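Q: For a teaching session next week I want to show students how multiple molecules come together into a single three-dimensional assembly. I've collected the sequence lines for a complex. Could you give me the predicted structure tokens for the whole thing so I can convert them for display?
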Amino acid sequence: MRPILEVKDLNYIYSAGTPFEHKALDSVSFRIDRGEFVGVIGHTGSGKSTLMQQLNGLLKPTTGTVWLDGQDIWSDKKLTRQARFRVGLVFQYPEYQLFEETVYKDIAFGPKNMGLSGEEIDRRVREAASFVGLTQSQLEVSPFDLSGGQKRRVAIAGVIAMEPEVLILDEPTAGLDPVGRAEILGNIAAYRQAKNATIMMVSHSMEDVARMTDRLLVLNGAKLAMDGSPEAVFARAEELIAMGLSIPQVTQVFLHLKKMGLNVETVYTIDQAVAQLTRLKGGQCHA
Amino acid sequence: MLKDITLGQFFPGNSVIHRLDPRTKLIMVVAYIVALFVAQSWVGYGLLLAFLLWVIRISTIPPKAIVRGLKPLVMILLFTAVLNLFFTREGMVLVDVWIITITTGGVNRAAMMMARILMLISCTFLLTYTTSPISLTDGLESLMSPLKRIRVPVHELTMMMCIALRFIPTLIEETDKIMSAQKARGADFENGSLVERAKALIPILVPLFISAFRRADELATAMECRCYQGGDGRTKMKLLRYHRHDMTAFGCGALLVCAVAVLRYFGL
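A: Of course. Below is the structure for the complete assembly, covering every listed component.
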């Protein structure tokens, strides 16, 4: 099957030719298949946000190629613009980009720019609002009267309304309380299931990526350091810690248990931990 | 695109020019501008240009950075040059077609005006490139302190200027971010008629204003938390003091202004 996104030898240099020049991406290559849920982790300044902006054609790579569904997005102006709609990008703290008088109009901004018909825009706005759990009455209020968490959901709905095949989110849960985090992550999963969309999520929460994703990309110092399943990545705990990252708390506990001589496998979600512990309680415990 | 704006940008460094007292640099810039207006001949301009190039050289600022800063001024330069070219009636007539008359005097005047503007802007760039905004405002406050006698709120004015300078890069970065976010939703800032393009600015300006107010609010709270209450009785962490190289700089400046004045006296 053709990968939905593929990048090869991506390099990006900021402020070339000034004292502030620095390399944000250094020969990054990977491919992503349709329907995958990919987590992107990395220390602050490792190039995650830069990489995300390459994937929908906001930043042009200094060298290297980005293929969306087999087509080089920079080969034609139309394709670049198409990439903006087919790859939806939700920035960090997206609530700061709201500008319209009502929630409805703000969510409709993207679909309007796509040149859709009035009915289609209406359908998409209402559907996107329901994905993120906004009520019909909330559509008519000013986005600036909503709470922080609700504003964030309006902003995410604004991107979802374009019905992108690939949805990229840059730290969608940053600065939210636990309930707000769980809701947003639930919304993302719901969208993925309904539209069979591909999701990429940048996150600093190892628990979130462990629970949600089926693959992890680890960026370190502008380079792609690891690419694999959460099990494979979290098994390399020491390398991750050396990069200034961490592993889920439950994984830490289990690695410690293993060191103490307990017969357990490495786990990275609470569910797996429960399964392991139940198995142990079943009589095989020899600690 | 917006990152190319160099207004008020500071290039950190450790050259003699960087280490000069900000007051020295401010006075020198004023003296240089005065000299630019005193000079009437190409000999005088040549001298001033040589001085400027020498200072740029020892400041270790890449000349490219200064050229880049001058780029936005192309329109103003052309406008001045054209005005002077067509409206000066001196010397030999070169072209005389319809209502357009170009004279040798006009060509000379246009070239001189361009040289004057270029050197004027370059020397102020040199000031902001080599002086951090904080020491620049410190210097300004110290130079304007005599005005306190006539109740001019000098400290408050320089504080406002300092804050404004400090927030230029922040707001540029913010604008960049908001533009990217709206572009990701398909906003188009480059195509369309003038009205359409003006309308396309609304999705940027509204969030930008909101965030500017939010930042102002946060800054005010942070300043109040640190018991900030204006200039009265406030002491400085870094006291400004003239050193030997400041005296050398003043000497060079005085020499330059005198030289230009003498040249003018002899009609050069």
